[in-house]
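Subject: sequence -> structure tokens, single chain

Hey, anyone have a minute? Need the predicted structure for the following. Not urgent.
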Amino acid sequence: MIYEAKFMHQLNEGRASMVHVYAMCALAARFSNDPVFHGIARGSRGTIYISEAVRLAQQSIIMPSLESMQGLILIGYYYGGEGDTKAKHVYIGLARLHAETLPFWDVPQDDSPISQEEYRRTWLSVNIASDWSATDISIEPVSLIHGPAVDLLQFDDIAFQSLDPGPVEATSCLHPSPYNMWAYMARSLDIVNKTSVLLRRMSQGLIAFHDYCQEAGVLEGRLDQWEQSLPPSLRYTTENIMSAVKQGLGRTFLAMHIGYHHFREMLFFPFLDARRDQYTTINLTEKATQCKRSANIISEILQHSTDIECCDLNCYIYGHIAVISSCVHLHTLLFSDKPESLSMARQWLLFNFKYLMDIKSYWPVVEHSLSRLRKFQNSCQDSISDPFVLDNWMARFLTEHSSSLSERQTSSNQPSGLGPENITASNINVEPPAHDPVNNSETGCDVDNLSSLLHDQQVSSEALVNHAIDWLLD
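Reply:
Had a minute. Here:
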């Protein structure tokens, strides 16, 4: 969204937008190891900076500009990480209003090509944030009608992050590039919006499962076409990951693919409800297998993000994605009788929990996601109905990234899911660990304790899950 070279040039000259500066500090301070933050919890470090960013933004609230939209989006991102969905929606909404007020669909032709590109990417960011913010408060997203063609951005990702802020020849950006990932991600926006709406409609009884299957088939075809449209260099392979890393785009590469598999996982999630077999001739097992395949790849991508330098996926949205992936792994533990599948599900579930333990110290909203996971697990224990049925609670669980959900209402208090109610961490003689709330100190011994449970065949999957969630929520 923000052309880094130009911003740094303006910052060095004292001309950078201070709304941008303070909002960036509010987002970035949590990741700093500077001694100035000693004793301040990572998730609390942005408070003083965001207050100043908000104060400055309010001074130009009726003066729309490219900079004002970017600043409002950054402030909205901050409040999303706090779990404050109302404040997030307000500031994202203001950015949208600024986009609608400006002739943003008519990119200034007298600007340099790189400045025109910044307009396109900012418009795309406003559109994405606006849609996701609406979904977070249970409103059907309505995309901006006007806007530049974002599916064919003129600069690839390498050029946009590395070109000098001086004049750029227009011809330098017209050659096809294998690294135009933001353009490809833009093409999937409509698919995920339609998936979210479809899930909500079925959960509210507005369409039957048969109708869901028909519409889901269309969206599946569009996702398949999206994947097939990727050039060979952007397909999900280990070789391509490392190639992107060398270009400084490893994080973007992983973000693109984890998003794609999250969308597939969401689309196929209703097929995990085994009771649907009696209502359709569609092979539910095949669709459920696709859901689980995407959940496995999501966990694999998260592992790559922690193992490969400069590939970290540390934005709060990935906490939500990890939780949904974990629920699919729970389905395998509940219903699979295949030793290989059970072993893989246990391993990926443990890795997801390690990832969530790390990221939750940075973003308060991840605690919301973990609380949802506990509520979902409780419904697995407390209900005789299939906990994977797509009721309204589950639809919100899947589609809302930042909102706080109440306890799920189950059809019965009889246990039937993830094992006996009396299985807790204390029953397997491992105490939940205490964590440093300030600087996320190393928890290696705690991870080792949990890892040892993974390989202890006498510890049931139920006990492992209970202990791991206790560990996360401690």
